[in-house]
Fold:
Amino acid sequence: MFRMMLKSKIHRVAVTEANLAYEGSLTIDAELMRAADILPYEMVYVYNISNGERFETYAMEGAAGSGVICLNGAAARKGALGDLIIITTFSTYTPEELNHHTPKIVLVDAGNRRRVLPSSP
Structure:
């Protein structure tokens, strides 16, 4: 039996832009996408902590190191600049894969830059 599990999460990232005129999607800083193992055009689930909105869209790669998180198209109606959001992806896994599965969790600082935590002893 396959199970759908969390693959990756970018936690509490701030919306930096909203572009209602764009076709759609969510632009994410390329460094954050790499850290979270999210590919361009991959489906993402977005949870807006600030207003409770939830929606699905696809990821678009933004400039690396820019901290950009841009709500594009209809998604621009789901949040405002400065809103904190959670971006997640899910995947299906076999029982064997689950024995070694750990989701990638990416935490950020106030500038939407990846925060690297010191390793535990």
About this structure: The two ends are 36 Å apart (CA to CA). The helical segments are 30-36, 95-98.
